[in-house]
Amino acid sequence: MSWSLFKTNILRKTNPVNNPNLDINQVATIWAEEYDACVKRGKDFINLESIQTGNVEIMKNLFRAALSKGLTTPPGTPFSLVNEFGNGVKAYWAGAQMRPFPIPLIPAPGSIQNIQVNSNIVTNPGVWPLYPPINPTSKQIIMVNMFVLAAVVHLFSVSGIIQTTSLYPSAPTPVPAPGVIVWTGYLIPPIITIPNINFPSADGLEPPVVEIPDVNIVGELNRQTNTPTEYEVSDLLTNTPTESGVSDLLDGDTSLLNVINVSLPDDTSEAFNVDQYIKDFRKQLIAQQVHCD
Predict the structure, then answer these.
(1) Are 83 and 153 in contact (CB under 8 A)?
(2) What is the pLDDT of residues 63-96, one digit of tens each?
(3) Which end of the chain is more exposed for a tag (fewer CB within 10 A), N or C?
């Protein structure tokens, strides 16, 4: 599931016109389950391993608490539902279990080959980028767009540790021993794979599946809001190409700009204040780097 399908499902399932009897519990469940389904189609940047189990129930509870807080917040009081949802997303990733396959191609440090994955656990649930205070909006699509952008940026900072059994140089033959691989960054594939109804074809040219790509939303948002060049998303982080083995989806470029460009759908009809968001997020990045140093 790409972010485009996530967005479509959220808008359809939580539309009060189509579903007038939805309560807070149902809305929280829809958001949590759609997020879970979406990220399970993702992979980490380098080892291409997907999440197996996240804390869905805790996320539901925190989403429910966020929705309740929104309903009880007095008019005129700054409140961002997307920021509050970030607590649920981080809880989902806290201690999440990743799949043990495929076995990472890049050997654990000091080894020559990985032969087994013993565990793969998320150790850092990431940083949720906070939006500046905004006026309440009645357009649901704006809030969904804001969530998707924040979710893509957030996955850039998720990290974990893979414990392996790897082969280490020794005479006369390599010996197996424990290894540790650290990974950072998670990507939702920017394509939706669906069965090809024309397969098989008489001439044998039709593929069994068709890949429908998402395209860039950021450029469109920048055009709609006249975002100055000095605040483009490319300024947030410089390019950080990785070693061989990185996902082909990123073409070796794991910069935040590239991750956003290949992840976000270009089907928004309303723009929010991208300029202010990016300026504030740059400050968050700088503050985080100073704190880590």
Answers:
(1) no
(2) 999 999 988 988 878 888 999 999 999 999 999 9
(3) C
DSSP structure class, residue 96:
P
What's the maximum distance between 2 C-alpha atoms anywhere in the chain?
75
The residue behind tokens 């997907």 is: 50
Q: In the block, which residue shows the tokens 């759609």? A: 34
- Whose tokens are 């010996």? That residue is 175
Residue-number span of the structural domain to which 207 is assigned:
3-292
Residues 256 and 149: their CA atoms lie apart, in Å, by 11
What HEC string does 122-183 produce? Answer: EEECCCCCCCCCCCCCCCHHHHHHHHHHHHHHHHCCCEEEEEEEEEECCCCCCEEEEEEEEE
Contact between residue 100 and residue 117 where contact means Cβ atoms under 8 Å apart: yes
Q: How far is CA 83 from CA 25, 214, 271, in A?
A: 19, 25, 18
Distance of CA 5 to the CA centre of its chain: 14
> How many structural domains does the chain have?
1
